[in-house]
Automatic annotation (TrEMBL):
Pfam family, one: Peptidase_U32
Entry protein name: U32 family peptidase
Length: 641
């Protein structure tokens, strides 16, 4: 089955959560169906969902008999144990011959190459593909289709599709996320349940209040976005050149999904038959009546702002008609001495004598912090590509000034997490001109590796590359990265197994308040359009910083120079008591996330870590004399097994 408009194929892609649902959906008006198998996909939370090996074989036969396509999701991050399981599973899928696999982890691409498999590969939305260079890089690695970033507007998609010639897949209906794909670590830090490994506990659906400037604002569910709804904009989707129109809903029931797919199918057929006389609204009222959440076109036509936030019962904290909640506000666990001793023992068993003393790196947010890091002789200084307001981005003159005084400290220039074509244009001009006095680049996305690997600057990989296993680490190293930052979501067992298998230089974030969420959605807009309902000061950060508050704590949210929001830990990550044992795992560098500290606070933190690395911390003092600046200390994901 295939549809064409002006010679361009259009595919309606439907989800199925179980074999029973698949049987009904494949008989509906879709052109292709996607589902997960028994392992290694992003929908592993609900018992009884996903298809068995036998059901996959039967589903493929049914679909291909109807001339429809099947895509199997193998789209979560792999632990070292998962890598071994994936070998057999990928071999099975290669022999079963689905029309493609939808993947997130670079390890899948490496396994396919290593095993000589020929099954086609599509890049999942969890790869967060958002620029032309990323598409080119994935094409070079054998990917034949890209699911675009959720935040991509149709005009950008049109441009990228035309320039690259790559098939693009775009979400047109269903549950969306307020955070950039694979850039949400909240669930893993609080529950040990990784959103990038198919086990998200949905902290974005909690009931929050917003605080800023000494006032409380009635935001309620400020991260709970509406469902995507592009039914009335099919002409614009088709005009943009999108190949595949993707419906979200692998957890939805059969009757709902069949009705939804048939409505979209009928609309596409009607438009192809008579584009001039096309009625956009034929099934709109019925779809609205049967909605699970309210509707939005999300980022398809620009930033939606507060219009994208859901107020409807399901999709806020109450996920079901029974009023059941998916999870409730939960604080990050406090660092405990008992757990620290357990972790030290576990790390010591896995470790060995370190070959060299690990380095200390510090990421800063302004020139005063940068000068302090150099003054204290830290090994590496990172200048971020995303700078928190009210500080401003580092200028070329700032870089030259720091380069002149850096001494033995290595200076790295960071890139923005999300790089548009404009960003590449700006950084091209900066990096291809006169030689900068920097020692390398901090790389945040696959496209930047491709673009700048010939620029003559060493490259190291940042946290959000989500390196979770030795295969993905090896692939990135093969592309030119000299050092990689370990995924912040690793539990203790995964961390120990990964470091044992990976021979590449690794960096670990050991202190500070890293971003739990990175989003295009501007939470500060709430304070600009809503009237306050109470007065209350922030507890741990200054009042000009926006805070998301629950009864379990306050998470500060900083806005960067691009208007993107970074939701941070309420507590501070602190691995100071375990540095010696972590060094035994071969960690090359430890990083302090220093952006939110005053210079005096940062001075104390750097001094404590330098003392620990130099072996001069008193053994009886677990925290080297440090006291928390914010709501306490936490071990993040490492406290979970």
């Amino acid at each position: 089955m295939a549809r064409f408009f002006n010679g361009k194929e259009i595919e309606l892609l439907a989800p199925a959560g179980t074999f029973d649902i698949f049987q009904a959906v494949v008989e509906s008006g879709c052109d292709a169906v996607y589902f997960g198998g028994p392992v290694l996909n992003m929908r592993m939370m609900r018992k009884g969902y996903n298809l068995s090996h036998e059901e996959i074989i039967e589903a493929l036969a049914m679909a291909h008999k109807l001339d429809k396509k099947v895509y199997v999701t193998v789209n979560n991050l792999f632990s070292e144990d998962d890598v071994e399981e994936a070998r057999a599973y990928l071999q099975f899928l290669d022999e079963a011959r689905p029309d493609a696999l939808i993947v997130q982890d670079m390890a899948v691409l490496e396994l396919i190459r290593e095993m000589g498999l020929t099954v086609p590969v599509h890049a999942s939305v969890m790869m967060n593909v958002h620029n032309l260079e990323m598409i080119y890089a994935l094409r070079d690695l054998g990917v034949s289709r890209v699911v675009t970033s959720r935040e991509m507007d149709l005009q950008t998609a049109k441009l990228l599709g035309q320039k690259s010639g790559m098939e693009l897949e775009y979400f047109v209906h269903g549950d969306m996320c307020s955070v950039h794909g694979a850039n949400c670590y909240f669930s893993s830090q609080v529950f040990g349940m990784s959103s990038n490994r198919g086990k998200c506990m949905k902290p974005c659906r909690w009931d929050y209040r917003i605080k800023r400037d000494g006032y409380v604002f009635p935001a309620e569910y400020p991260l709970a976005v509406k469902d995507m709804f592009m039914y009335e904009n099919l002409p614009e989707l088709i005009e943009s050149g999108i190949t595949s129109f993707k419906i979200e809903g692998r957890m939805r029931d059969k009757e709902f999904m069949v009705s939804l797919v048939n409505s979209y199918s009928d609309a596409i057929d009607r438009y192809i038959e008579d584009p001039i006389g096309f009625d956009r609204t034929v099934d709109s009222k019925e779809l609205y009546k049967n909605r699970k959440r309210d509707f939005s076109t999300a980022y398809a036509f620009g930033k939606p702002g507060l219009a994208n936030i859901n107020r409807r019962y399901e999709g806020t904290g109450k996920f079901y008609s029974t009023g059941k909640v998916f999870s409730t506000p939960t604080a990050e666990r406090e660092l405990s001495e008992a757990r620290v001793l357990e972790l030290r023992e576990r790390l010591a068993r896995a470790g060995k004598a370190p070959e060299a003393k690990p380095e200390l790196a510090v990421r800063v947010n302004n020139m005063a912090q940068a000068r302090l890091v150099i003054e204290m002789g830290a090994d590496s200084l990172y200048l971020p590509g995303d700078v928190f307001e009210p500080d401003r981005p580092f200028t070329k003159q700032d870089i030259k000034e720091l380069g002149a005084i850096k001494g033995q400290t290595k200076l790295y220039l960071g890139l923005p997490r999300m790089m548009t074509e404009l960003h590449f244009n700006q950084y091209d001009h900066l990096l291809n001109g006169e030689r900068l006095p920097i020692d390398g680049l901090m790389i945040t996305n696959l496209g930047a590796i491709r673009r700048y690997r010939a620029a003559g600057y060493p490259m190291i990989g940042d946290v959000n590359l989500n390196v979770y296993n030795h295969l993905s680490a090896g692939l990135y190293a093969g592309l030119g990265l000299e050092k990689l930052t370990v995924s912040p979501e690793m539990t203790m067992e995964h961390f120990a197994a990964f470091t044992a298998r990976c021979d590449l230089p690794l960096e670990v974030v050991v202190h500070g308040t890293p971003a739990l969420m990175y989003m295009e959605h501007d939470l500060y807009e709430n304070t600009e359009v809503m009237e306050p309902i109470a007065e209350e000061d922030n507890r741990y950060v200054s009042n000009d910083v926006l805070v998301l508050k629950t009864d379990k704590g306050e998470n500060p949210v900083y806005r960067d120079q691009y208007g993107r929001c970074h939701l941070l830990f309420s507590k501070e990550l602190c691995y100071l008591p375990m540095l010696k044992e972590m060094s035994g795992l071969g960690i090359a560098s430890f990083r302090i996330e220093g952006a939110t500290y005053s210079t005096e606070e940062l001075r104390a933190i750097i001094a404590a870590y330098q003392a620990a690395l130099g072996g001069t911390n008193p053994q009886e003092d677990l925290l080297g004399g440090l006291t928390p600046v914010y709501a306490g200390y936490t071990l993040g994901s490492l406290q979970f097994n």
